[in-house]
Design brief:
The chain has 109 residues and is an alpha+beta fold. It has a domain at 5-67 and 77-86. It is 32% helix and 36% strand. The radius of gyration is 13 Å and the shape is globular.
Length: 109
């Protein structure tokens, strides 16, 4: 899976210099971690967002947001936002804020 440098840069700009934020290649794309926990990612097939189990229903109601599949299995608490979703500034910010709120509540690794 090829990386999406444009989406990576968009996420980098959106997340800024958030304390505890790091980045690394993962799952054929580029992952953003907060205090060692996966937060979100960028791949050519979309933006991956970690919202937490039972926190993703609202996101799945949005246009161009689908459940994240890994090996054909749905990953609970994760969604994949396509270009129309992550290209919408308000929706992208809402998704990232929800991800930050969830991951900030996890104990540091």
């Amino acid at each position: 899976m090829a990386r999406d440098a444009g989406l990576e840069e968009l996420l980098r700009e959106e997340l800024g210099e958030h304390p505890g934020l790091s980045e690394k290649a993962m799952f054929g794309g580029w992952a953003f971690l907060l205090n060692g926990h996966l937060l979100c990612g960028a791949r050519v097939d979309g933006m991956l967002i970690r919202l937490g189990k039972s926190n993703d229903a609202w996101a799945l109601e949005q246009h161009d947001v689908k459940p994240m599949l890994m090996g054909g299995r749905q990953m609970q608490g994760w969604v994949r936002a396509g270009p129309e979703a992550y290209g919408n500034d308000m929706l992208r910010k809402r998704l990232l804020l929800a991800a930050l709120n969830f991951v900030e509540g996890l104990p540091p690794k």
